[in-house]
Amino acid sequence: MIVNEMAKGWQEFWAEFFRIKHRHSIEGIAEWDRKVVAHVTDVLGLKQEDRLLDLGCGSGDHALEFARRGMSVVGIEIARSLVSLGNRMASEAGLAAELMQSDMRETNFREEFDACIIINAFGVFEDSGNIRVLENVEQALKTGAHFYILESNPVRRMTRKWERWDEVEGGHLLMRSDYDPRSGMETFDFFYLTEEGDKIIYAPKPEDDGVSVRGKVYTLPQIVGLIDTAGLTFENAYGSVEVPPEQYAVESETLVVVGTKR
Length: 262
What we know:
Elements: E1 4-8, H1 10-22, H2 29-44, E2 51-55, H3 61-68, E3 72-77, H4 80-93, E4 97-101, E5 113-119, H5 127-140, E6 141-152, H6 154-159, E7 162-168, E8 171-180, E9 185-193, E10 198-202, E11 214-216, H7 220-229, E12 232-238, E13 254-261
Helix pairs in contact: 2-3
């Protein structure tokens, strides 16, 4: 029985709930993270002392792992709570990783990085915003440096409407996804039922400016077009985070797009 219904914003509740509590409850997530880092390192040819930009970094799960491998990492994340946690963990471990609170569309780095990664964080804006993100990648990278974008396979996202319950901290989370073929947008709906019977729903607050629970689903040719528009060069597409790399196909679980700054 539902006792109370509460509306909470991304900054005050959902960022920490999704990106820390829920994410870390997913079976096998730590192993998947290690595979992602190994895959990025392999396909981009990263080495110790490289400087890496991580856009949409969450609480820094990948950023900290790259730092453990001897790289210097800057992470960009819009949620204050995730930035605070990531920086605290980096400091406690003595790692060369710094998380900064910012919107991915508003970074202003200039030819500072040897590589840039966007892990499950691309497409959260309309076309103009997503192009702006890629333009910022182009500006941030050194000439000849690489970028790496990882998303779930768009073919699967466009053909599957899903709904599921997850148990988190004794309560239950309902998540639903709906794809609109007319706009190409995927919208997420979710709420959390606590053990005490409270229902927590998402409602954006003024401090949530720049946060979206909708995302544009791009096919590989569409992403290549955006990359070209932003002045970057597409190199290859992979269908998993396994090493050795596997080429992307319509039946792949993931889509990894790799390219360079001209």
